[in-house]
């Protein structure tokens, strides 16, 4: 009932982790690979190992989470070795997330992936909000276009981009116009809502240490923003560009709503962090329940079919 195809690979369901959650080490990645998730993505890798920001840097709130991790990761080689090893063992569809700390690093990371044996999907993260002094690439439209123009002079493997949320119709229009120029496999909307501030009222204090307490928001807070971005891009992007919907998935109804807005796959961040990998079987069961109630037999029966009034 939940089966779905992505790049001609049949997945048992459309669920994945969102990059950053439960995907830093090979142990965590093995757990994802062995879970009920249809696919998984690695922690966003930079060229070199990074320690990330000082702790506490992730905090669960009643309605979601706030984080300023600062890109802690084991470096590209660690994740590339992992996905190539699994590929040789027969893994069919994997997602490798990367971002550079500079324009040149972005190009050299993608060249390395292009020249490697890796045949899976690359998720090019244009939206990390948590590195002090480094603005998000995808809020700079000119830079995004320049960077993607250069990437597609040499990159021929499947690649998608992870975007931040946009809040203005003109920005949906402009970003979609840029993305439609390129043979992207997919667009992933949204990364965290950047630089919120959560306060512990008793202590009259922030809850995470980096950046004076400012951090990316996830969870229930962000579902309407996530759905708006999925819907807006589905209405604007070439049909050949798939959409991964991310943001505010707490239960099966949320997964249904993302797919109704046009998502091909749906990623889970904050709720995976709260519940662990058992979340995927719960969400799959709940999604099936919603579909049964409504009389739907496959995801194609309702994908992208949100009604307007
Ligand atoms: C981090 C956060 C993000 O939202 C992202 O896309 C990449 C990295 C982080 O703080 O580690």
Protein architecture, described:
- This protein is an alpha/beta fold and 309 residues long.
- Helix content is 34%, strand content 19%.
- It contains 9 helices and 15 strands.
- The chain has helices at 26-33, 76-88, 103-115, 141-154, 169-179, 223-236, 252-260, 270-275, 279-294; strands at residues 4-6, 9-11, 15-17, 58-61, 64-67, 95-98, 121-125, 159-163, 186-189, 193-197, 199-200, 205-206, 214-218, 242-246, 265-268.
- The strands form 4 sheets. It has a 7-stranded parallel sheet with strand order 3-15-14-9-8-7-6. A 4-stranded antiparallel sheet has the order 4-5-13-10. A two-stranded antiparallel sheet has the order 1-2.
- Strand 1 (4-6) and strand 2 form a beta hairpin.
- The two termini are 29 Å apart.
- 48% of the residues are buried.
- 3,4-dihydroxybenzoic acid (DHB) binds next to loops.
């Amino acid at each position: 009932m939940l089966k779905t195809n992505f790049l001609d690979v049949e997945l048992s369901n459309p669920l994945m982790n969102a990059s950053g959650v439960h995907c830093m080490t090979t142990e965590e990645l093995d757990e994802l690979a062995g879970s009920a998730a249809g696919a998984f993505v690695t922690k966003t890798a930079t060229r070199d190992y990074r320690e990330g920001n000082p702790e506490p840097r992730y905090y669960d709130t009643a309605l979601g989470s706030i984080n300023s991790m600062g890109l802690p990761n084991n470096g590209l080689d660690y994740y590339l070795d992992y996905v190539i090893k699994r590929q040789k063992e027969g893994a069919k569809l994997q997602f490798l997330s990367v971002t550079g700390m500079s324009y040149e690093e972005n190009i050299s990371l993608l060249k390395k992936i292009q020249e490697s044996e890796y045949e899976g999907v690359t998720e090019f993260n244009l939206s990390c909000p948590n590195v002090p002094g480094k603005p998000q690439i995808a809020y700079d439209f000119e830079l995004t276009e320049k960077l993607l123009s250069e990437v597609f002079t040499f990159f021929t493997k499947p690649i998608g981009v992870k975007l931040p949320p946009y809040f203005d119709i003109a920005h949906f229009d402009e970003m979609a116009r840029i993305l439609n120029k390129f043979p992207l496999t997919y667009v992933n909307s949204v990364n965290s809502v950047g630089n919120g501030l959560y306060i512990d009222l008793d202590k009259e204090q922030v809850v995470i240490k980096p950046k004076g307490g400012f951090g990316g928001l996830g969870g229930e807070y962000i579902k309407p923003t996530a759905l708006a971005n999925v819907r807006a891009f589905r209405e604007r992007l070439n049909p050949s560009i798939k959409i991964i919907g991310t943001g505010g998935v707490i239960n099966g109804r949320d997964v249904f709503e993302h797919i109704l807005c046009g998502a091909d796959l749906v990623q889970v961040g904050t709720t995976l962090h709260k519940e662990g990998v058992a979340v995927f079987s719960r969400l799959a069961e709940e999604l099936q329940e919603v579909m049964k109630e409504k009389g739907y037999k496959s995801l194609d029966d309702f994908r992208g079919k949100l009604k307007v009034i």
